[in-house]
């Protein structure tokens, strides 16, 4: 009996794009010290050149490169020292042929000079005479005005995820605050009569709630604001009440468990009762994660995640995180992958895409990836894993020695 109309993960990613491309997140202005990890809601154009003046990259003497051509230790170039550049100040010095001026690292180059010779390749004969022992070429040891960032250039586009170095670049152009999308707001509901909070005493037959905590951590790391979480019994009214109460305050709700077709699995019925457009897919041709539900109610997303802890986290990474990228209008989705050599034969011939947890072992110059074998209900499997490998639906497994790409966890 086929209980789900399963769809491939890539197809569901396309459907997510279709349904949520037009999603509108409001924006907020943040000071630079709070903007790391946030996504820009507008293009950033530089109003200045960086640097705003030609600068030296070394401690040395600014000069005309042509005056050093052909010089050597045995035949130094003699130059007149006409002064010194002070850090943080504009210099009015002008270098003519045969002249030079001392300039510290980062100091402004005097007009007329086009290169800097490093101090160690010079010999100061007296206060006004310098021997240059090694030639320099034009622009050597110099950063020109606008070399780093040009005035009127778009530094970052809308949808850019701000990394620590980007915060530095914003500081460099004198931007003290930026407009970013507010964090997508989510809420997690763990279902299951057997599920209890780790703060409670566990009785036989009960299990501690794992999924709330793994998903909460992963979603926070991905830039979501999880405004809360709760537990619902395997009862239609309880789950429906919890969702309808929270829905107006969030952009997405994640329900863990009850996604399958057992007599107590009420998630589908509850989602179907919430409104339109309703369920986008119930069922993925993937292992693990087959019973996953993806739905849209109004403009909000409702996720029915499989209860097994490994399945829930894998699907969160494969589908929910890309959904966040879509509503945040991210320029690009970064997936951190590394190449490794597969360690042992592993069959996968069920015609579904499969994600296999792996442990990585460094060996000489390569990484060896070995599958971690176990059922998708085992959270320790995931804790031991360094990443996972995707085996496409049309591939009958992986052979020892094959090169594989590992998505890091
Ligand atoms: N007849 C079928 N049965 C099942 C199928 C199927 O295709 N046909 N699919 C199996 C697959 S695959 C999965 S995955 C599970 C998913 O089931 P549900 O999403 O309905 O999840 P539950 O039944 O509520 O729970 C499954 C399992 O996971 C434990 N669980 C649930 N929530 C949590 C939590 N928050 N923390 C820790 N553990 C949790 C729960 O106790 C169950 O052991 O369905 C298969 N069945
Ligand atoms: O999602 Mo299930 O884990 O394929 O057992």
From TrEMBL:
Signal peptide: none
Pfam families: MoCF_biosynth (PF00994), MoeA_C (PF03454), MoeA_N (PF03453)
Record's catalysed reaction(s): adenylyl-molybdopterin + molybdate = Mo-molybdopterin + AMP + H(+)
Top-level taxon of origin: Bacteria
Cofactors: Mg(2+)
UniProt pathway annotation: Cofactor biosynthesis; molybdopterin biosynthesis
Name of the protein in question: Molybdopterin molybdenumtransferase
Organism: Aceticella autotrophica
């Amino acid at each position: 009996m086929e209980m789900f109309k399963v769809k491939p993960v890539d197809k569901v990613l396309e459907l997510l794009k279709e349904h949520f491309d037009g999603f509108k997140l409001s924006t907020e202005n943040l000071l630079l010290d709070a903007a790391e990890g946030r996504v820009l809601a507008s293009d950033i154009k530089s109003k200045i050149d960086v640097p705003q003046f030609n600068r030296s990259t070394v401690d040395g003497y600014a000069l005309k490169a042509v005056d050093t051509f052909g010089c050597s230790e045995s035949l130094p170039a003699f130059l007149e020292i006409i002064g010194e550049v002070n850090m943080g100040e504009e210099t009015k010095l002008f270098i003519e042929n045969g002249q030079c001026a001392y300039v510290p690292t980062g100091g402004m180059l005097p007009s007329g000079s086009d290169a800097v010779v490093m101090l160690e390749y010079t010999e100061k004969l007296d206060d006004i005479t310098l021997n240059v022992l090694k030639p320099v070429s034009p622009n050597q040891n110099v950063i020109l005005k606008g070399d780093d960032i040009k005035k009127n250039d778009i530094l970052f586009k809308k949808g850019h995820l701000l990394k620590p170095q980007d915060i530095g670049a914003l500081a460099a152009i004198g931007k003290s605050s930026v407009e970013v999308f507010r964090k997508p707001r989510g809420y997690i509901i763990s279902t299951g009569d057997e599920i209890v909070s780790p703060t409670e005493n566990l009785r036989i037959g009960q299990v501690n709630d794992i999924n709330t905590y793994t998903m909460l951590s992963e979603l926070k790391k991905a830039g979501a604001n999880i405004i809360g979480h709760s537990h619902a019994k395997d009862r239609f009214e309880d789950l429906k009440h919890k969702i309808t109460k929270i829905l107006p305050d969030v952009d997405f709700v994640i329900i863990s468990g009850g996604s399958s077709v057992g007599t107590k699995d009420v998630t589908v019925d509850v989602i179907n009762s919430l409104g339109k457009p309703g369920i986008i897919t119930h069922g993925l041709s993937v292992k693990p994660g087959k019973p996953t539900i993806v739905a849209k109610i109004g403009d909000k997303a409702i996720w029915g995640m499989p209860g097994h802890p490994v399945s829930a986290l894998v699907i969160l990474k494969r589908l929910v995180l890309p959904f966040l990228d879509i509503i945040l209008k991210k320029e690009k989705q970064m997936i951190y992958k590394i190449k490794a050599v597969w360690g042992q034969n592993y069959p996968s011939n069920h015609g579904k895409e499969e994600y296999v947890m792996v442990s990585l072992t460094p060996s000489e110059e390569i990484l060896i990836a070995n599958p971690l074998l176990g059922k998708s209900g085992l959270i320790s499997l995931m804790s031991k894993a360094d990443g996972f490998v995707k085996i496409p639906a049309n591939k009958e497994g992986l052979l020892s020695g094959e090169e594989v790409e590992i998505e890091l966890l």
